[in-house]
Amino acid sequence: MALAPHAVHHLYQYRKSISTKPFGARGKKLIRCPLCLLGEQFCTCALRRQLQTQASFLLIMYNDEVLKPTNSGRLIADLIPDTHAYIWSRTEPEAALLALLDSPQYQPYLVFPAQYAEQGQTILNQVPMSTLAEGKRPLLIMLDGSWREAIKMFRKSPYLHSLPLLSFDPDTLATYALRKGSHDFQLGTAEVASLALGAIGEAANGKVLSTWFDLFVESSLLGRNRRCREDLLPITDFTDAFELAFEQANNGKR
Where does the signal peptide begin and end (predicted)? Predict the structure, then answer.
């Protein structure tokens, strides 16, 4: 049975409803699935699974980011049941977003590079679950937009400056083939989220998200039809890798 639409799906529909003109994404003539935004023939919705996890995520998305078919933030919501998503506002942050940060249910961590930390802001590279107060879950906050937009969101959102930063330098360069940042070390939102899951002790779940991201990238590129035949791997290689990672993560929790 198909899973119900998640927070990013709902936010996408809201953002479309207030648009004054259609969003001009690359490949706009492609007939897309309304949920995963991949070409219909490469839709991955039937493969979507929910992970067993202690993590919660909060996506703070730049205005048009939620409309972009290349956005990888939605992949987090695909797999993590407790994911929240809001459009960023410089002057009027949503009350529900601020309430999440103050909720006794959560311990929020902003996943962001240490080099941008405000003076006195706590910087961590691991969050052992044993360090959380009883009854609290880690709320991993992702600023979802281009690199320039993410920096702007951070700098112009004072409510983020008192939160501990979860920061790390990945050993591998970005593999995000759709919209690379201006520097090789910049990663896609879902890739960073997979590292964040590893930082709270859920490396197996991080692997699932990473393989889900790989499938998303390959499906997107196939939809563009810009790859040489010699460079193409069967899409089943990516679906099999995702399903294997999910099975291994699930078996590890039994």
Answer: none
